[in-house]
Write a structure and sequence with these properties.
This protein has about 500 residues and is mainly alpha-helical. Helix content is about 70%, strand content about 5%. The chain has 20 helices and 2 strands. The longest helix is centred in the last third of the chain and has 32 residues. The chain starts with 5 loop residues before the first helix and ends in a 13-residue tail after the last helix.
């Protein structure tokens, strides 16, 4: 039995210690100890989880705990993990650990910054261990609220506008999501918020009547999809990324956006399989457009943060694209893409933030020849670029190949045409990545002020080196992670396909 409560207790203790801390050294000490403890806890969970599966543990969720929290509304404190949750917890702990070092020298209001940063982390960890729908939604909101202050106070550029835009759009999505969650709860009889009970305990033919699923599925999918930067509700993301502090961009793109894809798969599709099967093709078309749109939009940007932000729209679109294919290979690729994109975009934002801190510009037209001036940062920047365009040996290649192979397994015309359309994003990504890397890193530096810049400090080296090692590790040895994810993806995909076997899908009228 593994104490999953540690993922809530450690951030709570960090908040308490940060509140009591006096002086920047004490604040840094608390963050170092807390983020290291979270990383060690996540690594230990991976080891214990894999040993439990090897020993024959076959339950969908392991290490579960369930006790009543608010009996009148049937709200329970219910936690547990499967391979998908374990992978997301490991990713979250890595980003929090590296984000701590990326913010090591942040001033002013260092203590206040790390308080909000830790609260955001608490929401993320709580979300991924939750099995109770209401509890999951609560942690979802906890993760969103700190973003306004983290961007509005410590951000750059049009930070107030970006923070307000992000908050309003995500709160609007939360309203959709809340309607969907309570629709699921009352549609299933109003007796439990437990995800596994809602999926498997039947009252007649369906837990949630199919007619109601057609209402709640779009609300829930869009509610989570907005956080996953689903086209055309993605516009908050580039502005938010561009204005956020470095570590907040890392946590925002690396982890927070993954809550969207995770929720779409775990809640919208798992709990309403008939509607997912019938209406999925509509969202698939929209998401495929977003994948290509995001890549093209990145091509015309000159700000490096906007380039990476629009690239994230494209790559996060691939996550939704893959889960809508409703097969094991594509769904496994979606989770691998969430891991890969989280690590790569965190590395990209970290390197961009370090360059901006020194050169005071992110405009690719004003930067040139930096690899001779700050080689350590620039080498990591190049690695992030190569991983993003899917170079073999890095995590991006493994994830994208799994997605496209799985997507092309669907034999009908619509799915294969959309898969071919989505694969064009690889070529477009290569264009803007290679152009940006070539312009910023190489050539002759013509700005005399840039010749005086210094390379990465020890704390920055720890952050970006950790991410590089994880990216290369997942790219070179992906099978253990892929197998762990596939084991947990299989029952979800099988449940969706089995529940929809007798359903006359709307696609039957469109696809021969």
């Amino acid at each position: 039995m593994f104490p999953l409560h540690l993922f809530i207790i450690i951030p709570l203790l960090m908040l308490l210690c940060l509140w009591l801390a006096r002086g920047i050294k004490a604040v840094r000490g608390v963050m170092l100890a807390g983020s290291s403890a979270l990383l060690i806890t996540a690594i230990s969970l991976v080891v214990v989880y894999l040993k439990a599966r090897q020993a024959g543990a076959a339950a969908e969720m392991l290490f579960t705990t369930d006790f009543t929290w608010f009996a009148p509304l049937h709200i329970n404190y219910t936690v547990g993990v499967d391979g998908i949750s374990v992978a997301m917890l490991l990713l979250s702990s890595i980003i929090v650990f590296t984000g701590t070092f990326a913010s090591w020298r942040l001033q002013p209001l260092t203590k206040e910054y790390f308080l909000w940063f830790t609260l955001l982390s608490l929401g993320v960890f709580g979300f991924f261990i939750s099995i109770d729908l209401f509890m999951m939604f609560m942690f979802y909101e906890v993760a969103l609220i700190p973003m306004y202050l983290l961007i509005g106070v410590w951000g750059t550029g049009r930070k107030e506008y970006s923070a307000m835009k992000l908050t309003l759009m995500l709160m609007g999505a939360s309203a959709f999501l809340m309607c969907g969650i309570f629709g699921i709860f009352y549609g299933a009889g109003g007796q439990t918020f437990n995800i596994l009970d809602l999926a498997h305990h039947t009252n007649g033919a369906h837990v949630i009547p199919v007619a109601q699923q057609y209402i709640w599925f779009p609300l829930t999918f869009v509610g989570f999809g907005v956080l996953g930067a689903m086209f055309p509700f993605h516009t908050w993301s580039p502005d938010g990324h561009a204005s956020a502090p470095t570590a907040v961009s890392m946590l925002h793109a690396g982890v927070l956006m993954k809550l969207g894809g995770y929720g779409c798969f775990r809640i919208a599709m798992f709990l309403m399989p008939e509607a997912a099967k019938a209406l999925g093709w509509i969202f698939l078309i929209v998401v495929a457009i977003g994948v290509v749109y995001g890549a093209f939009s990145a091509c015309v940007q000159t700000d490096m943060k906007y380039i990476n932000a629009y690239s994230s729209v494209s790559h996060c679109g691939l996550v939704l694209f893959a889960i809508l294919m409703i097969n094991r290979t594509a769904a496994t690729g979606a989770i691998l893409q969430m891991l890969s994109h989280g690590l790569l975009t965190a590395l990209f934002f970290a390197c961009i933030g370090m360059i901006y801190h020194r050169a005071h510009t992110r405009d690719v037209r004003e930067l040139q020849g930096l690899i001779r001036i700050m080689p350590y940062i620039c080498v990591c920047f190049v690695i992030a670029g190569l991983g993003n365009l899917g170079l073999p040996g890095f995590s991006g290649f493994v994830a994208e190949m799994t997605i496209f192979v799985g997507s092309f397994q669907q034999a009908d015309t619509l799915h294969r045409v959309l898969t071919i359309l989505a694969t064009t994003s690889i070529v477009i990504t290569a264009v803007f990545i290679l152009r940006m890397v070539g312009k910023v890193m190489y050539g002759v530096c013509k700005n005399p002020d840039h010749l005086k810049l210094h390379d990465a400090t020890w704390d920055e080296k720890i952050a970006i080196t950790t991410l590089v090692v994880c990216i290369a590790g997942l790219g070179l040895a992906p099978l253990w992670m892929s197998d762990m994810i596939n084991y947990s993806v299989t029952p979800i995909v099988d449940h969706i396909n089995a529940a929809a076997t007798q359903l006359t899908s709307l696609t039957s009228f469109l696809i021969p």
